[in-house]
Amino acid sequence: MKKIILITGASSGFGKATAELLSSRGHIVYGTSRHPQSDTAIRFLQMDVRQPDSIRQGVEQIIAAEGRIDVLINNAGMGIGGALELATPEEIDLQMGTNFMGCVNLCQAVLPHMRRQRQGRIINLSSIGGVMGLPYQGFYSASKFAIEGFTEALAAEVRGFGIQVSIVEPGDFATGFTASRRNSAATAANEDYSDSFARSLSLIEKEENGGLQPIVLARRLVHIVECRRPRLRYVVANLEQRFSVWLKHICPGNWFVGILRDYYKV
């Protein structure tokens, strides 16, 4: 059955691959970007997920054209690397505002329409960094931990309205995310953090660049959109990273922090 789908961050990476695959399967896909593209099967909307007015205008445009929104995929996000101690208020606001409040803003704009329809599906992209606090990616992890808690609570609150909610936790993927990461100049210049930060960042970038292809996640998102009863949580990662998520749940906290320190060369 053809669905009306809104996906944020659709101009690159996960969002682009997913939007194109959904469109090829006959769905009507609206994608958001701060710099919309043309000549594509995706119907682009100019939107900044940190600006509620921008979001409201985009949602109203879809409702005016289609009369409904069946699926919301909150994919837009970004990363800032650096020591938690040295993060500036501007960096924290950008990280949390884009990843977490962007997700919240979209949900709050779309949910009134889904409640009126008494049906809908929301898919929020978290990360395995939303399951474990990654060194020098602390506010990125914090934004994804926030999405985890928000999404679990949301699933309970809206189930009675016929709205299904899922969390997707990707591991490392080869996308433009690595090249677009913003790194803390203060951390790189700090004599206590700089060497450790450089070692950790080098490993992170190597694993991301050698990660899975975006189409792997796109296929899983299409499955979640089209299946009858989606699960609350999906981990989409290589075997090693899926094992690390399992280990986090059974390992004593201090042990797991030690494993992270050793792995990321902190």
Please, could you describe this protein's structure?
This protein is α/β, with parallel strands linked by helices and 266 residues long. Helices cover 52% and strands 15% of the residues. The protein is built from ten helices and nine strands. It has helices spanning 13-24, 52-66, 89-117, 138-158, 177-180, 185-189, 194-209, 214-226, 239-250, 253-263, and strands spanning 4-7, 28-33, 43-46, 71-74, 80-81, 120-125, 163-170, 182-183, 233-236. The strands form two sheets. The protein has a seven-stranded parallel sheet with strand order 3-2-1-4-6-7-9, sandwiched between helices. Strand 6, helix 4 and strand 7 form a beta-alpha-beta unit. It is globular, with a radius of gyration of 18 Å.
Secondary structure elements and pairings:
Layout: E1 4-7, H1 13-24, E2 28-33, E3 43-46, H2 52-66, E4 71-74, E5 80-81, H3 89-117, E6 120-125, H4 138-158, E7 163-170, H5 177-180, E8 182-183, H6 185-189, H7 194-209, H8 214-226, E9 233-236, H9 239-250, H10 253-263
Parallel strand pairs: 1-2, 1-4, 2-3, 4-6, 5-8, 6-7, 7-9
* Alpha-beta classification: alpha/beta
Tell me the series of helices and strands, N- to C-terminal. Answer: EHEEHEEHEHEHEHHHEHH
Strand content: 15-25%
- Secondary structure tally, helices: 10
Number of strands: 9
Q: What are the low-pLDDT stretches, counting only 5+ consecutive residues below 50?
A: none
Measured between the Cα atoms of the first and last residue, the distance is 50 Å
Radius of gyration: 18 Å
Specify the overall morphology. Answer: globular
- What is the residue-mean pLDDT, rounded to a whole number? 95
Q: Percent range for helical residues?
A: 40-55%
Strand order of the largest sheet: 3-2-1-4-6-7-9
- Summarize the main sheet: 7 strands, parallel
